[in-house]
Design brief:
mainly alpha; two-stranded antiparallel sheet; 4 strands; about 65% helix; about 5% strand
Length: about 260
């Protein structure tokens, strides 16, 4: 299940508006109806289209496609995108996000004590040369992303949480004064999940669960608590709890006697 619809909704764009932006920003000519078919998985984008869509949304190609890991199988089964392709795409996306040329990135890196010439950055981004682990570490430090992200490895929950928090800070979403509004976003996504379950819409269910996690992470930061600490605390409470499952619902032992 791809994530195209989810990212478009997050940007608050119609199919018509998205088609216009893609042409202006990514030089991707596509009609709104075609985008709709991609979202409904009635038609598969070509490899080049996947890359441009991922560039526009500033996410890894593999994540946009809905795949569980960093090794992207090309949709038409005639080509494959290797782990090095994923790595080079991510380096290019991160630089584009800053709005820098390779020369500007190289000069900025020198201020941080990192020496990577523009020509080397170009070869990394084009997949012509594979960075050694020490250079990947330098690049991860400079771009403020987990090393696993640049390596093309699946990210763990803690890494994803940090990326969500950074994303929210960049957009001025995290603000204690906005806590009530953020709480409403959580309940809104719960409504989307309920609708997906009622309609047995697997795509909506997956999108809603992801959105719920994002909104909870942001809400927890507004409330100055760590969501993972909350999860650990909850698990420590339930791990030794005794009870009985009745009609698919676990009832703790103390409630069985009431």
């Amino acid at each position: 299940m791809n994530r195209l619809r989810r990212f478009r909704k997050q940007k608050g764009l119609t199919l018509e508006e998205l088609a216009k932006e893609l042409q202006e920003k990514e030089n991707l000519k596509i009609v709104p109806d075609g985008l709709g078919k991609y979202e409904r998985e009635e038609r598969d984008p070509k490899r080049e289209t996947w890359v441009k869509l991922a560039n526009y949304y500033d996410v890894p190609v593999s994540y946009l496609m809905g795949l569980p890991d960093g090794l992207v199988q090309h949709i038409n089964k005639t080509q494959t995108m290797t782990i090095d392709d994923v790595k080079s795409n991510r380096l290019r996306e991160l630089r584009k996000k800053l709005g820098f040329t390779r020369k500007q990135v190289s000069e900025d890196m020198k201020e941080c004590g990192i020496d990577i010439p523009p020509s080397t950055l170009s070869s990394y981004e084009k997949g012509e040369r594979n960075p050694k682990i020490d250079k990947l570490e330098d690049l991860a430090f400079y771009y403020r992303v987990p090393l696993s992200y640049l390596k093309g490895d699946p990210m763990n929950f803690e890494e994803l949480q940090e990326l969500v928090i950074d994303w929210a800070y960049e957009r001025n979403i995290i603000d204690v004064k906005k806590t009530p509004k953020q709480f409403m976003k959580v309940t809104e996504e719960l409504g989307e999940l309920a609708e997906g379950i009622n309609k047995d819409n697997q795509g909506q269910i997956e999108d809603s669960l992801g959105d719920i996690l994002v909104t909870l992470i942001i809400l927890s930061r507004d409330l100055n608590v760590d969501l993972l600490d909350c999860l650990r605390g909850a698990y420590n409470v339930i791990k030794n709890r005794k009870g009985k499952t009745i009609n698919g619902v676990f009832v703790k032992e103390s409630d069985l006697h009431e």
